[in-house]
């Protein structure tokens, strides 16, 4: 086990015209499980391949423990990788697939390799499959074999490249729990790449969000969810996505109204929040974010906004209500709130749940304010 450190890691293609990863710095503590998430093409798999030694960085460095492995051959790095497509040898048995890495990277005897594979297979619950070949296995069994092949190496670092994306929803949930259990037992430093933000949120000690090759935010899943650093993170993390409204701060500073609106939306702020907003922003027009689960239905109160229900999506315990408060505006409510399409409904927002972003840069203005206050108290 070891600490993994990426320092201003960069990857360019086409003589620098395409930047896949831009000056990424990240510290992964010994035994920490980090999930890396972002849209397609954000650079997450490229980052993983550079750590594995399958891609050469254009700049920056990679350290595993105290060793600089930036220019080291992949075979010499003490890492084990689990791939999306399992990457099992079809002509080899499960035993041979799991033992292959040991044969290539250790001095263990054949009997020692077989014994270690059997111990790992018992841990993975696949000891009865050791004589089978990959085409005789289900998707879940193949994934267990791929995990077992990585575990048997006892590496310093585990690398996971979207390992569950080929599985059905139920099996994905089962394997997600299994990976977490194994990581807790083994305590091996892990970097887990996924496009599924639910996987990223539920599995990681910390979550890293990338976009266009750049680091957007890193932190504990709960912290990132509650205090996104910018509009991209706010909209990417959470399901359904955060609602966004273009608003104007009225001259007296106590009300928010929609930009280019007929005046039907008028949200009154408390004096303390109004003062915080003026101190943090200094802007007349802002982007406000509100999570669907923070939208409340009500018929009374000082900040009730009348809205028309467009579509109702029942998902079991909750209903998603598509409202005309703003573009793609969704309220996530209890299933017993079940209006009909076209019905008028009152909704309100608690100002403590509002996220405020710069209309041009997308930077979270209240995030910056909270960071400054936290620094001042240290």
From TrEMBL:
Pfam families per the UniProt record, alphabetical: ABC_tran, OB_MalK
Enzymatic reactions: L-arabinose(out) + ATP + H2O = L-arabinose(in) + ADP + phosphate + H(+); D-xylose(out) + ATP + H2O = D-xylose(in) + ADP + phosphate + H(+)
Sorted UniProt keywords: ATP-binding, Cell membrane, Membrane, Nucleotide-binding, Translocase, Transport
Compartments reported by the entry: Cell membrane
GO biological process terms held by the UniProt record: carbohydrate transport
Function, in words: Part of the ABC transporter complex XacGHIJK involved in the uptake of xylose and arabinose. Responsible for energy coupling to the transport system.
Assembly with partners or alone: The complex is composed of two ATP-binding proteins (XacJ and XacK), two transmembrane proteins (XacH and XacI) and a solute-binding protein (XacG).
Superkingdom in the source lineage: Archaea
InterPro entries per record: AAA+_ATPase, ABC_transporter-like_ATP-bd, ABC_transporter-like_CS, ABC_transpr_MalK-like, ABC_transpr_MalK/UgpC-like, Mo/tungstate-bd_C_term_dom, NA-bd_OB-fold, OB_MalK-like
Protein name in the entry: ABC-type D-xylose/L-arabinose transporter
Protein family per UniProt: Belongs to the ABC transporter superfamily. Carbohydrate uptake transporter-1 (CUT1) (TC 3.A.1.1) family.
Organism: Haloferax marinum
Domain ABC transporter residues, every copy: 4-237
NCBIfam families: PRK11650.1
EC number(s) recorded for this UniProt protein: 7.5.2.13
Top enzyme class: translocase
Stored Gene3D superfamilies: 2.40.50.100, Nucleic acid-binding proteins (2.40.50.140), P-loop containing nucleotide triphosphate hydrolases (3.40.50.300)
Bilayer disposition of the protein: Peripheral membrane protein
UniProt GO molecular function: ABC-type transporter activity; ATP binding; ATP hydrolysis activity
GO cellular component: ATP-binding cassette (ABC) transporter complex, substrate-binding subunit-containing
């Amino acid at each position: 086990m070891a600490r993994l450190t990426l320092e201003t890691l960069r990857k360019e293609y086409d003589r620098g015209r395409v930047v896949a990863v831009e000056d990424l710095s990240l510290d992964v503590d010994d035994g920490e499980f980090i999930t890396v998430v972002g849209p397609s093409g954000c650079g997450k798999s490229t980052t993983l391949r550079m750590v594995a030694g399958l891609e050469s960085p254009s700049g920056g460095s990679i350290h595993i423990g105290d060793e600089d492995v930036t220019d080291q051959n992949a075979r010499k790095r003490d890492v084990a990788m689990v791939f999306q497509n399992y990457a099992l040898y079809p002509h080899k048995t499960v035993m041979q697939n799991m033992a292959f890495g040991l044969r290539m990277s250790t001095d263990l005897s054949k009997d020692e390799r077989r014994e270690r594979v059997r111990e790992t297979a018992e841990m993975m619950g696949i000891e009865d499959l050791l004589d089978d070949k990959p085409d005789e296995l289900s998707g879940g069994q193949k994934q267990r074999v791929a995990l077992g092949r990585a575990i048997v190496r006892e590496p310093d670092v585990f690398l996971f490249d979207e390992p569950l994306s080929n599985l059905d929803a139920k099996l994905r949930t089962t394997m997600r729990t299994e990976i977490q259990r194994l990581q807790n037992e083994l305590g091996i430093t892990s970097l887990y790449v996924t496009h599924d933000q639910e996987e990223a949120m539920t599995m990681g000690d910390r979550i890293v969000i990338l976009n266009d090759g750049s680091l957007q935010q890193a932190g504990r899943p709960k912290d990132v969810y509650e205090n996104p650093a910018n509009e991209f993170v706010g909209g990417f993390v959470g399901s359904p996505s955060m609602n966004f409204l273009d608003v104007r701060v009225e001259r007296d500073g106590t009300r928010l109204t929609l930009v280019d609106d007929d005046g039907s939306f008028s949200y009154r702020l408390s004096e303390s929040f109004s003062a915080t907003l003026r101190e943090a922003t200094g802007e007349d027009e802002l982007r406000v974010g509100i999570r669907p689960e923070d939208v409340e239905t009500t018929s009374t109160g000082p900040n009730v906004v009348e809205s028309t229900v467009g579509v109702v999506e029942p998902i079991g315990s909750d209903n998603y209500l598509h409202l005309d408060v703003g573009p793609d505006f969704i309220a996530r409510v209890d299933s017993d709130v079940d209006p009909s399409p076209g019905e008028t409904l009152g909704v309100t927002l608690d100002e403590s749940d509002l996220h405020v972003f710069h209309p041009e840069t997308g930077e979270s203005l209240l995030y910056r304010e909270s960071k400054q206050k936290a620094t001042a108290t240290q």
